[in-house]
Structure to design on (223 residues):
């Protein structure tokens, strides 16, 4: 098993509600005046799913109305199909929900994923670069749709150490930093800049996480 080998997410469940009840729509953040249909998805990796939800908004007239990670992660899920996150798309037309779900699943199967930062697969890193943001993550990050962003995630110490390396490696700014612990006990950051800068920052982040995984403790003389 090689370092930075992809850990492809597993889409656990997908369902469409063509004509959702108005009370359900409102409770999950949808607007019954604009939305009638919902698309639901669970997955065993939360951050790739946030990216995939954003990708859906670039391929269909859908809104991300609900997206939440579950506490402690997929290893402690509430059920076989619960995974690590529930994401909900909403649209006026059920066909748009279908198109959004197809784009979401494609992204999870072929693009966004965590990577192994050590040979044993005990440390994972998410050094993902979004070349062009959709209207979900752009809104969450306070950036313009179409902007580039590095979406960086790792366990707490690794994430902190690697974020410093990423910020120093390229001309990027921190759109948002999420210190530990998250619901899944990781930490993350969203860095903004031109696409090459975001790519350089993500590469530096991944390299730093791998370094910590390889040598968790160093002598004072090496610091």
């Amino acid at each position: 098993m090689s370092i930075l080998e992809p850990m492809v997410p597993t889409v656990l469940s997908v369902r469409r509600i063509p004509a959702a009840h108005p009370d359900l729509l409102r409770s999950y953040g949808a607007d019954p005046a604009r939305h009638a249909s919902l698309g639901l998805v669970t997955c065993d990796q939360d951050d790739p799913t946030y990216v995939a939800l954003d990708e859906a908004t670039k391929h269909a007239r859908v809104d991300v109305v609900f997206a939440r990670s579950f506490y402690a992660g997929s290893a402690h899920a509430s059920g076989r199909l619960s995974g690590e996150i529930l994401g909900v798309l909403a649209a006026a037309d059920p066909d748009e929900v279908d198109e959004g779900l197809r784009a979401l699943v494609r992204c999870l199967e072929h693009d966004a994923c965590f990577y192994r930062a050590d040979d044993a697969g005990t440390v994972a890193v998410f050094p993902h670069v979004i070349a062009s943001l959709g209207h979900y993550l752009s809104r969450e990050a306070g950036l313009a749709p179409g902007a580039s962003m590095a979406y960086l995630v790792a366990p707490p110490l690794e994430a902190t150490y690697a974020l410093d390396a990423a910020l120093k490696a390229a001309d990027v700014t921190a759109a948002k930093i999420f210190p530990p612990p998250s619901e899944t006990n990781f930490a993350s950051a969203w860095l903004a800049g031109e696409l090459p800068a975001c790519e350089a920052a993500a590469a530096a982040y991944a390299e730093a996480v791998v370094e910590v995984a390889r040598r968790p403790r160093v002598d004072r003389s090496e610091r």
The domain at 117-222 is CATH 3.30.70.1710 (Alpha-Beta Plaits). The longest strand covers residues 11-17. The radius of gyration is 18 Å. DSSP finds six helices and ten strands in the chain.
